[in-house]
Design brief:
The chain has eight helices and five strands, in the order ααααββββααβαα. By secondary structure, the chain is of the alpha+beta class. It has a single domain, classed as SCP2 sterol-binding domain (Nonspecific Lipid-transfer Protein, Chain A, 2-Layer Sandwich). It has a five-stranded mixed sheet with strand order 3-2-1-4-5.
Length: 170
């Protein structure tokens, strides 16, 4: 038996177990074990990295003194984003909803597809896979800004990790 065949057999036998363990719901539970400040810092770093060009061009002024809630529905993760001091800030990271100016709700797989620009945000919105409540004008501004991410800025290991995670949980 070749090592490729053995490797494939091991992957096929282990993958169903991994798929059960790393579900978005379990990811949400795991995220609650990590200290909130650490989670907020990770979200801030990733958001400012992914939207570096837009932040540098001043395109996030619309979020100044506003709070946008991003909900990963299947993971029960509620993230509060704002813009202050020339950067995107993560003001909240919770396992329950909170008061915000706008709420954008999406499942994990669709969020990854959106960030990787495999699907247009308008398509998700019209398919009701991306829901916007509250200040819809602000929500649509955020939705349209997400569509301007320059994928080359995102580190390759992050793209690869997101791609693999999505493949496993689908």
């Amino acid at each position: 038996m070749t090592s490729i065949t053995l490797s494939t057999k091991i992957q096929r036998s282990v993958e169903p177990v991994i798929k059960k363990v790393i579900t978005p719901g379990n990811f949400g539970v795991l995220s609650r074990v990590i200290p909130i400040k650490v989670s907020q810092l990770i979200v801030e770093k990733m958001a400012n990295l992914m939207f570096k060009e837009q932040v540098n061009e001043g395109e996030f002024g619309f979020l100044q003194q506003r709070l946008a809630q991003i909900v990963l529905i299947d993971a029960s993760i509620f993230i509060g984003l704002s813009f202050s001091g020339g950067k995107i800030t993560c003001d909240r990271f919770r396992s329950e909803t909170f008061e915000s100016d706008v709420t954008l709700s999406i499942n994990t797989v669709d969020a990854i597809s959106l960030l990787q620009q495999e699907v247009d945000p308008d398509t998700l919105f019209f398919q009701r896979k991306l829901k916007i409540s509250g200040d819809t004008e602000l929500g649509h501004h955020i939705k349209n800004t997400v569509d301007t991410i320059n994928l080359s800025i995102i580190p390759g290991f992050v793209v690869k990790a997101l791609t693999e995670y999505k493949r496993i949980i689908q």
